[in-house]
Amino acid sequence: MDDRNLPHRQHGSLAADELLSSAQAAVSQRLAERIAERIEARGGWVPFADFMAWALYEPELGYYARHDRPFGERGDFVTAPEISPLFGAVVADLLADAALRTGLVVEFGAGSGALAEDLLNRWAATGHLPHRYAIVEVSAGLAAEQRARLMPLARQLGVAVEWWSSLPDSFAAAAVANEVLDVLPVHLVGTRGAETFERGVVVDYANQRFAWADRPITPPAEAALAGIDLPRSSSSEYLTEVAPAVRAWVASVAERLQPGSRLFLADYGYARQTLYAPFRSRGTLQGYFRHQVVDDPLWAPGAIDLTAFVDFTAVVETLTEAGLQVVTWQRQGEFLLAHGILERLAERAEPGSAAYVRAARAVNRLIMPHEMGELFQVVVAEL
Q1: 174-178/310-311 β-pairing
Q2: Structural domain includes residue 115
Q3: How many domains does the chain have?
Q4: Residue 322, domain CATH
Q5: What is the CA radius of gyration of the chain?
Q6: Which terminus, N or C, of the chain has the lesser number of Cβ atoms within 10 Å?
Q7: What confidence tier does 13 reach under pLDDT thresholds 50, 70, 90?
Q8: CA of 244: how far to CAs of 85, 181, 250, 315, 356, in Å?
Q9: Cα separation of 160 and 162, whole Å?
Q10: Are 336 and 87 in contact (CB under 8 A)?
Q11: What is the per-residue pLDDT across 60-72, written as a single tens digit (0 to 9) for each?
């Protein structure tokens, strides 16, 4: 953008260059310039869903397209499989019959490969190994990391592990998606009294930053509001997210599944009436960087993770419309306890031992309400 390059924004009281490595800063700068050019080409304003898609998935520059690792204690966030292998053990037992029956497992967004590793190890121990394990991964960097981690195990177990760039038209499988839906792009919509608006992104050249601007609601966002009754107040603003991309993703998977399949989904989220409750007037959109919440989602595109809680009512509706039977919809803590995670904990280590105490602390992070137990929802559907 010539002389209008966008410097990184402030994050809290620290300048961005104090937080980002030189490599991160350079990549984010390039992506910011590319996004600014696109905003200008589209009339100076874009829905936040476009900004989020570019920030996360732009080839070579987006957060999930980068080759460095976002997961784990040294990354920006930790997922359930990184916390405890017992999460994978529970999921493996849930999917065991479908994995053996169909001979195929499909994992979406396999991250570091930890969940795949745990599933395969559990199935090897219980005699439920599938013939094939397919991973659908948008990040070439993460796919390379997954290959390095999983291929030695796959050769040892005699399982064909493969990576798909797209889904076949139809397949029967045990399918799993852990923390995939919360990083699909969202539209920001709001109300002020009788007015409904959409909040999008503009370039504030005077202050060298991206900024928010409200416009009339766009057709995709308006369509996504069907069935959602947003709170309205004459004295205050209500802002939230809608995610047509979540419905589209769930439908695209569900419509391809053949009889004998079972699908496991786990993610941040709530039922619709809770997600759009009046008290949640600022929505759920957040950024994450080095395990800290980033209040400004427009800061350092490509360097931070962006997430929003999932409307699980929409997920369940979409699965049902596609002909699947939803057999489970529970909070993650309730699900893991109901499916025997404490029993698997006792199998893993001698109760009272130091190893047991460490494993129990990890399990508590997965099941306790103030940790992941209440914020995550689990849906299991089958055909």
Answers
A1: unpaired
A2: yes
A3: 1
A4: 3.40.50.12710
A5: 21
A6: N
A7: very low
A8: 32, 11, 10, 11, 43
A9: 6
A10: yes
A11: 899 988 755 555 5
Query: What is the reported pTM?
Result: 0.90
> What's the CA gap between 17 and 6, in Å, rounded?
13
CA angle 358–361–367, rounded 5-degree value: 145
Residue ranges in the chain assigned as alpha helix (H): 16-19, 22-41, 48-57, 80-83, 85-102, 114-126, 140-157, 219-224, 244-254, 272-275, 312-321, 332-338, 341-348, 354-367
The angle formed by the CA atoms of residues 270, 106 and 149, to the nearest 5 degrees, is 105
d(CA 93, CA 340) in angstroms, rounded, equals 10
SS3 for 307?
strand
| Closest alpha carbon to 107 in 152, 137, 149, 87 | 137
Tokens of 150: 């999983």
The tens digit of pLDDT for each residue in 169-207 reads 999 999 999 999 999 999 999 999 999 999 999 999 888
Name residues whose C-beta falls within 8 Å of residue 70's C-beta, 6 or more positions apart in sequence. 63, 64, 76, 77, 305
Residue 334 lies in a domain: yes
* Per-residue tokens: 332: 């993650």
Burial 77-91 (b: 16+ CB within 10 A, else e): bebbbbbbbbbbbbb
Q: What is the 3-state secondary structure (H, E, C) of 190-242?
A: EEECCEEEEEEEEEECCCCEEEEEEEECCHHHHHHCCCCCCCCCCCCEEEEEE
Is residue 1 within 8 A of residue 37, CB to CB? The reply is yes
Does residue 356 form part of some domain?
yes
Q: Is residue 5 pLDDT above 60, yes or no?
A: no
Reported residue count of the chain is 383
Output the CA–CA distances (angstroms, integers) from residue 132 to 56, 159, 171, 285, in the order listed. Answer: 29, 6, 12, 36
Parent domain of 172: 80-182+250-267+312-382
For residue range 253-268, list pLDDT tens digits in order.
999 999 999 999 999 9
What residues contact 321, with CB distance under 8 A and at least 6 apart? 251
pLDDT at 12 over 70: no
| 245-251-252-257 Cα dihedral, nearest 10 degrees | 150
Position 166 in a domain: yes
pLDDT tens profile 266-295: 999 999 999 999 999 999 999 988 767 888
